[in-house]
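Fold in tokens:
===
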Amino acid sequence: MANKFYITTPIYYVNASPHIGHSYTNIAADTLARYKRSVLGKENVWFLTGTDEHGQKIKKAADEAGLAPLEFVDKVVTQFKDLWKKLEISHDDFIRTTQDRHIKFVQQALQIAYAKGDIYQGQYEGWYCTPCETFWPLSQITDNLCPDCHRALEKIVETNFFFKLSKYQDWLIKYIKDTQNNPERMHYIQPASRRNEVLGFLENNKLEDLCISRPVERLSWGIGLPFSSKHVTYVWFDALINYISAVGQFDAQNIYRSAWWDKDVKVVQLVGKDILRHHAVYWPIMLEALGIRQPDTIFAHGWWMFDKDKMSKSRGNVVNPVEMVDKFGIDVYRYFLLRDVPFGLDGNFSEEAIIKRFNGDLANDLGNLIYRTLTMIEKYYFGEIPDLDISKTSYDQSGQMIKNKLEDLPKEVNLALDDKNDFSLALEKIWEVIGLTNKYVEETKPWNLVKEDKVEQLKAFIGLLVAAIRKIGIEIAPFMPKTAESIISQLGGSEIKKDAPLFPRIETKKK
């Protein structure tokens, strides 16, 4: 097991405001980072996010706003930073591709690949999608439309620089498939459906070399090539490099050195499925060409749909994360995104679905368990939590089952998160304990124990409830940090500090 953990999100393109997709990836990454800090220690975890700020779409958006490109991106970047603050995203670093540290590193990487012969100059004649900033080979084009966004392509002929993707195609296929000698490679591209998708693409298509530049006369807003004053870097070669430019540097021998991209670090990269090919084909080959190790996992999650349609500004169905947090609260929003659909699959977003989770899982289950336990301690023990070691206390079958579940819960959560990144499963395991504990209250009927003056049984019962809630608070902390703080505040000491119910039910109109 690696003793350090490095997690990255994509760097987000700043031609528009952040939306639910951005928040989804960052909440997932934040949850993993918080979890790993609880296991490995804060000093052994690094969480990177940031913004992608070069390219034609940025230049166009800046022109439309009547601003210089840097002025425009400075303005939009603030929206991302403000959102991460509102969502309490605990990133350790925020990288911008306009920062000097990144620009210098990208130029070094380009120079190394160029000197090695992996970058060459040639004439490019191809079909280009301006919105996607992507050249497409004729073999992947139908009706002169972009395979991704389905908008019209433009034919361009110009001199550019190319990166030799084709040289590394066989290597990448073997690397992904070599699970017999390296079983951990099964986790290299996740989920399994995305791994199969990448292998299918690589085995059924011949990789064409990647055009990695734009002429300055066509695009001035980019990082200049160190070996050509007439060209700037293609956006993907610039953007993907951020993951290593943020945490390391090349030494005098052009060997990459980093405390966070080393053999004793587990490197996990979260991306949306729409940029899987860039991260599972271009990026691994770039690393191999630069002599840098591969990440342990590239996980491509699904999209959030609205009424089963992909969200888009043109359809008017984009969900604003700030509005959802203002309406439901940070932890409710985080819980819904992480619980409602397994990470990797597409989900369908609606306020009705959030309210259903709120009233069921949070109000009826967790909130009710906490509030009724606090009320009993207040009523039966005048707010003093009974001093009891449940490990030395005997229980009936139901109580013993809860004890066993509490002992197993950290392992269950770890199994769900460590390799699978299955947030929904981890939360399901926690809610199993919540459900059993609520059922235990109904079965035990503590009010009858009071009537019958069964002092020791009541003490053991309350002790188990308190132990369960405290353990639940620890395990949900990465997912719902504010809720965990409230549990600690109310039940963390020898006396309770009872507060209002954590999740008062949302009344809905009857149809």
Q: What stands out?
A: The longest helix spans residues 351-381. Residues 204 and 266 are 31 Å apart (CA to CA). The mean pLDDT is 93.
